[in-house]
Amino acid sequence: MRFRPCIDLHQGRVKQIVGSSLSDTDSTRLKTNFEDGQPPEWYAELYRKDGLTGGHVIMLGPGNEEAARAALGAWPGGLQIGGGIYLDNAADWLDAGAEAVIVTSWVFHDGRVDEARLSDLTRRIGKDRLVLDLSCRKKDGEYRIVTDRWQTFTEEAVTHDLLSRLSGFCCEFLIHAADVEGKCRGIETPLLEILGTWGEIPITYAGGIHTEADIHTIQSIGGGHIDFTVGSALDLFGGTGFSYKELAEQYGG
Hints:
single chain; TIM Barrel
């Protein structure tokens, strides 16, 4: 189990945002836990120095491309990039230094996974450079995948059948539990129980992690095979739950 660092970008700045508050139509809903004056490349250089690979640069909406490219340039081959990635720009982001691209909204059509699009993308860049973001929110007793910065529910739920079907197109999954993202109130244990009993390709979980007990739960449920991301609870982002240095030393590599 590894600690995967993150760089969340909103309007070109590094921020930590409560996931359920994102909206394209109502900016007054946005709740920001942290906003830093340090540029994104500062974080990328820190992760590079500490040898933390497989971290995520997530572009939350427009206006983040320049900041994202600066981060990738500071840790070439060490970070993944997500947010607005599709067939025609995926290779460009890899050329800009991304280890892999993270894709979600573009592979959905009418609420369902479009496997033709996925096949085209895999052929274009290779499955070893593609991470599928299956971030989800709970609805009608299921963990339904959400798109458009976690605002739009799809018809697809996170199940073993779906994970197995999509694993042939990508090298790993990134899954934010969007309902608890940024709230520092605990993890979605039922979701982790689905993920922990599957295990065909790597998965990174994010959402609600705020104590060492949460990490131990992830390790126990996932048998050490589920990686994790900590955002708002991390002292690096103004939180009080975790020391970045200690997580990097204990779960890095």
